[in-house]
Amino acid sequence: MTRIHSLYLLGGVTLAALVAALFAAPIPQDPAYHLFTDESAPFGIPNFANVVSNAPFLVVAVLGFHALSREPLTGTHPALKTLYRVFFVGVFLTAFGSGWYHLNPNNETLVWDRLPMTISFMALFCVIIGEHISAMLARRCFPFLLLAGLLSVGYWHLTETAGNGDLRPYALVQFLPMLLVPIILLLFPAALKPVSYYWGVILFYVLSKGVELLDSEIYAVTGFLSGHSLKHVLAAVAAFMFYLALRRRTMI
Prior knowledge:
The chain is mainly α. It is built from ten helices and two strands, in the order αααααααβαααβ. It has helices spanning about 5-25, 50, 55-70, 80-105, 105-130, 135-160, 170-185, 195-210, 215-220, 225-250, and strands at about 190-195, 250. Strands 1-2 form a two-stranded antiparallel ribbon.
């Protein structure tokens, strides 16, 4: 497949997702989303495990900031250093935003969980665009994609407050890049190799979403670790794979 055909494919998938979201019925936030299996509160901290399991995000963010402060990093594109830093800013804020949400899970605190994740999603998406397609395109798109991501959370919160919640824009922001990134990795050659680290990011992120759906089942088996707490750990491992990519890849 030629480069232009690959770009058409990306555009077609994006357009199809936008049309599907536009014509889909509004998606309100399910109140049951806030009901987690593990509600234990040792040390007087509500939902202790779901709160402290966000600590790995903080560790990965600190590692990322430290690595980016050193020169040279063989696994980075010189024109994308701001985007790498923004990714770790989002990871850093996720540790606190998700921790805050899990202290008192409700729609109001969920906003502070979703905003930081959106920052990392958009930064990562633009990094991959920049490394595989065009660094200039990535840098120009990033402010608009970041704004779209933040607005998607704001739109959901406003509609939820008004009694007609709609998660469609936020769902697009979270899941459309997960459709496009594999296509980019497969069809557009990368100057930085190996690409396996980014496949690791995808793998651990998908695993994190899977165990989230098995919150009570995993807790019933382990007796101490719920699916949602494990989700945080696996999502942090996905971010750690990105950190390893910056450290270990080389320019081909």
